[in-house]
Specification:
Layout (H helix, E strand, L loop, with lengths): L3 E5 L18 H14 L3 E4 L8 H11 L4 E6 L6 H14 L4 E5 L5 H5 L7 H20 L4 E4 L4 E5 L13 E4 L3 H10 L2 E5 L3 H16 L6 E6 L2 E2 L3 H21 L22 H10 L4 E2 L3 E2 L1 H6 L7 E4 L1 H14 L3 E4 L4 H29 L1
Parallel strand pairs: 1-2, 1-14, 2-3, 3-4, 4-7, 7-8, 8-9, 9-14, 10-13
Antiparallel strand pairs: 5-6, 11-12, 12-13
Helix pairs in contact: 1-2, 1-12, 2-3, 3-5, 5-6, 6-7, 11-12
Length: 372
């Protein structure tokens, strides 16, 4: 399996431990972080989506314009743009970026957030709609003649996309979600199934469920894992750094909000309330076993935030964290989304210290396996 390292280009500088001070679209930050990711060797970068945020495809367009090689993973929520139009938007960007676009389909697991965009479907209904949405995306990208489509959520008559993706195989589709409804959609549609940073056992179990669902369609998706590395030159310093991050995050929460929005439009999740989405519940299940799991998996931020998104880390020296990434590779993970708590500084550190070591260790393991 070829390895891909994915970074994160936020719309502004913030994290659970860094309060946002800039505008909703901080152009200088976006450009600097994007160029830094490309310079230090990341293969791709996620452009995130939220119901209150700037539009991800447009952010991705700008990132593509200020980079030359960095690929994009554009988070996109189905249901608010007609799938025929979204297909042409993404295909157009794929042409302008010379084939650097992937889309990360985010169905959404939080009813309150989805209501901010006027979506009041149930979770199962949303996933059923997502399946139709991806069907139509792929028809627009691949059909050489006009097509009709009849679904419960979309009806298309003589749909046709004159602009096709630059990539011969079409635009890769990342997809996440751990509920039964999500797994069913993933098995049929995901090119890459995206997981949050769970334990080795959890990752193996969930990947197995996706493989089983995909086998019904003769498909073999790749797997991506999202983690928040915390690095230092000794193990002790790394864990001290993690504790300092946790203390800063606690202080921000006590002051109100989650560090990402200055106006309470995006309030911090109450960790005492069980989250609706299965992915967060799985992270909290791991966090309940302790703050340090497996070799160096850290659940402190997940426990604090109620597992609000990608919130588990790997803590240690670059060698230790690279070894943990290689362990996940052995389970079947070939793409790693690495996002720091100090976005720009951490991205540069990852590129200089972690990515080369992880690539080396994984290559050595592959060579050893091939020789056996």
């Amino acid at each position: 399996m070829s390895i891909e390292f994915i970074g994160y280009v936020g719309h502004f500088n913030s994290s659970e431990a860094v309060r946002r001070t800039g505008p909703a679209v901080d152009i200088d930050h976006i450009e600097t972080v994007a160029k830094a990711h490309e310079y230090v060797g990341f293969d791709r970068a996620l452009v995130a989506f939220h119901s209150t945020s700037a539009e991800s495809i447009l952010i991705g367009q700008h990132v593509a314009s200020v980079t030359q090689r960095l690929k994009l993973m554009i988070a996109h929520r189905p249901g608010f743009t007609a799938p025929t139009l979204a297909a042409r938007q993404l295909a157009t960007l794929d042409q302008f970026s010379r084939g650097r676009v992937a889309v990360h389909i985010i169905t959404g697991g939080n009813d309150a957030e989805l209501a901010q965009d006027g979506d009041h479907l149930t979770k199962d209904e949303r996933y059923a709609r997502t399946a139709e949405y991806i069907d139509i995306l792929r028809r627009e990208w691949s059909s050489e003649t006009p097509f009709d489509y009849d679904g419960a959520y979309y009806r298309v008559r003589q749909g046709f996309g004159d602009v096709k993706p630059r990539q011969p195989g079409g635009i890769p589709v990342f997809f996440g979600g751990a509920s039964d409804a999500a797994i069913a959609v993933a098995g049929q549609h995901a090119d890459i199934y995206a997981l949050w940073g769970e334990t080795y056992a959890q990752v193996g179990e969930l990947a197995g469920r996706v493989r089983t669902a995909a086998a019904k369609f003769n498909r073999k998706p790749a797997f991506s894992l999202s983690l928040r590395p915390v690095l230092a030159d000794t193990e002790e310093k790394a864990w001290a750094k993690a504790e300092a991050i946790l203390e800063r995050a606690k202080a921000l929460r006590q002051a109100g909000g989650d560090g990402r929005a200055p106006n309470n439009a995006r309030k911090a999740r109450d960790p005492s309330v069980l989250p609706q989405n299965e992915g967060s519940r799985r992270l909290l299940e791991a966090a309940a076993k302790g703050p340090r799991l497996d070799k160096c998996l850290w659940t402190g931020i997940a426990a604090l935030t109620g597992a609000s998104g990608n919130s588990t880390g790997l803590v240690g020296t670059p060698d230790q964290v690279a070894e943990a990434l290689a362990d996940y590779y052995d389970i079947g993970i070939s793409k790693f989304l690495l996002r720091g708590f100090d976005p720009l500084v951490d991205a540069v550190q990852y590129g200089r210290e972690l990515l080369p070591r992880a690539r080396q260790i994984i290559a050595e393991r592959r060579q050893s396996a091939a020789a056996e």
